[in-house]
Amino acid sequence: MLILLIVWVVFVIATAVTSAGVALFQSDRDRRKDALQVLRTVLGTGTALGGVAAVLIKLHQAGLA
Length: 65
Description:
Elements: H1 2-25, H2 29-61
Helix pairs in contact: 1-2
């Protein structure tokens, strides 16, 4: 379970850094707009799923799940 969480964190960080770089340094306006949308989606989803995973880990450690 911990491996999956680590893989998810690495994926979220890599995708966020890549889309932030495109949003900041791309000259095409449409690409910047798309990259910003990807950044918002990844950070929103990544943090929400990270919170759910943390709760599940705590429940598992407590013997409830």
